[in-house]
Amino acid sequence: MSMLSVDYRQVRAELQKLEGSYRQEVEKTKGLLVQLEQEVHRRSQLHSDLSVHSSEISLLKTKEKQLQRDIAETRETKKSLEEDLQKIKAAKAVDDLQMKELQEQLDTEMHFSVSYKLPSIPII
Q1: What distance in Å separates the CA atoms of residue 6 and residue 54, rounded to the nearest whole number?
Q2: Rounded to the nearest 5°, which phi and psi values hold at 120?
Q3: CA–CA distance, 103 with 93 (Å, rounded to integer)
Q4: What's the gap between Cα 19 and its chain centre?
Q5: Mean pLDDT of successive 10-residue segments in the chain (124 residues)?
Q6: 50 to each of 38, 44, 61, 69, how far by Cα in Å?
Q7: Pick from 80, 84, 107: which is nearest to 92 by CA?
Q8: pTM of the predicted model, to two decimals?
């Protein structure tokens, strides 16, 4: 019986050792599951953030295109206004020249009109 008793104790010690190892592995597994859940949550959050940033980028690109169209339109308007301004300046220059000529003509006519209206004094 002593042989059975020794074998029983050895088996019992081995069983306790295996149970201890099993508990350690169960704890490691629980820890790894917690890490896995955290990683899944982190990846989910990153995916969500990526979606938000992608939407923001898309919106900003749309705004950029609209601003580029607005800039092009503003440049065209500026060009058109500058052309109109040049036409107005040219017309003003013509008008100023005509005004000067008319003023000179008026001055000449006034001079002659005044000259002819003065009584002539005979020279003796």
Answers
A1: 70
A2: -90, 135
A3: 15
A4: 64
A5: 80 94 97 98 98 98 98 98 98 97 91 69 60
A6: 18, 10, 16, 28
A7: 84
A8: 0.56
